[in-house]
Amino acid sequence: MVDLKYIGHSAFEFKNGDKAVLVDPLVSINPKYNWHEQPITDILLTHAHGDHLGEAIEIAKEKDIEITAVAELAGYCAEQGAKTKSVGLGAWIKYSWGRAIFLPAFHSSALPDGRYGGSAASILFDIDDVRIFHAGDTCLTGEMKTIRELYAPQIALLPVGGNYTMDVEHAAMAARWLGVRSVIPMHYGTFPEIQADLERFAKLISFGNTSCQILNPEEIKS
Ligand code: NI
Ligand code: MN
Description:
The protein is α/β, with parallel strands linked by helices. It has helices at 50-53, 56-63, 71-79, 143-151, 168-178, 198-206; strands at residues 3-8, 11-16, 19-23, 40-44, 66-70, 83-87, 92-95, 98-104, 121-127, 130-134, 155-159, 182-186, 211-212, 220-221.
């Protein structure tokens, strides 16, 4: 069984028994989330932008765990003193809590010092036979139809804030193309330019077979 916790922005914790993985850990956005007390065994990053890198390096160092990211970003994290697992897009990677595969996202990726951060990614998780698609930052792409055919995700975590990513209209289309039964909107409201009309999103989603679950930070879904 997987417990899915929305921390805020694009940060999530997936817990499977006594193991937990953090994705895009901008944990500073949610003072109620105490990462020190969580049994985090891995950190996975979709791309290098600061709102996704978050506190990854600090957490990895304190817990002595690996950050998994595409090679350029993993290299940067290693330079900062963190343990890393350097990967590319397209191959399953096995973990103690399940497996994950990095997939294409249409977005840029720069390191904090301005160097190229490698390909931006979406990440598909397979934890106890629950398949969760974390889109990272991306526009709507036809890849999502392929992802449905290849991986059949049940839950999608989709950016809805627009400006840098999909907006609510395109995210609703993405949910349909992915064929998911649940969708959790993310990457909205954090900055003035990424406001989203979640009521409209819920209406758009309800035309399909998906149920729109809108989680607030710290809520847990099993
Ligand atoms: Ni970004
Ligand atoms: Mn972002």
